[in-house]
Amino acid sequence: KGLNGEEVILFNVCAGLEPGQSLDEKLASRMRKLDAEKIRMINNASDWLLHYLPHTLVKINRVSFGLLNDEWIAEASGNDVYLSRSRLLLAVPYLGKDMPSRSSEFSHPDIQIGLTVLAYAYSGLRWSDFSRLITELRLALLRESGPMKKRPSSLLYND
User: Fold this and answer.
1) H or E segment at 95?
2) pLDDT in tens, 25-63
3) Where does the DUF3645 domain start and stop, copy by copy (predicted)?
4) Are the beta carbons of 60 and 97 closer than 8 angstroms?
5) Cα atoms in the 13 Å half-sphere on the side-chain side of 41
6) CA distance readout (Å), 123 to 91, 113, 117, 126, 144
7) Which residue range forms the structural domain that includes residue 100?
8) Same domain? 9 vs 53
9) Are residues 94 and 50 in the same domain?
10) DSSP states of 112-139 as a string?
């Protein structure tokens, strides 16, 4: 049996224990029985709570990170600047207020994911993202079979 919610929280609290402090023996014995995948998931959650989340939350949107806006993308494309797909869709480092770095990307994937989630939460979808999303949803609808109103894409759109 896996850990319950309280035990996962306790594990994450205990991950920050100082040397010499002990982990509750009952919890430790249950943790020894977990398979490797569950332990990796708990460790990843612990890393997020103790390290990545605090690091990402102190960053300021559109000052130290953000999404490339449509105008910047159009300007870069007009100057024959290569923009990788990841730079178009994920958060990128900023050099200052509304000044995205020309070519840098975040090196740690967890940080990049966290900052991307925050960037979309703060800024919302760009018009180009919304347009692409609706186009893909429409194409998926056309590929699906069955009554139009019961197709998965139609149900997703109506939600």
Assistant:
1) strand 92-96
2) 667 777 778 888 888 888 888 889 889 999 999 999 999
3) 85-116
4) no
5) 10
6) 11, 15, 10, 8, 32
7) 60-124
8) yes
9) no
10) HHHHHHHHHHHH---HHHHHHHHHHHHH
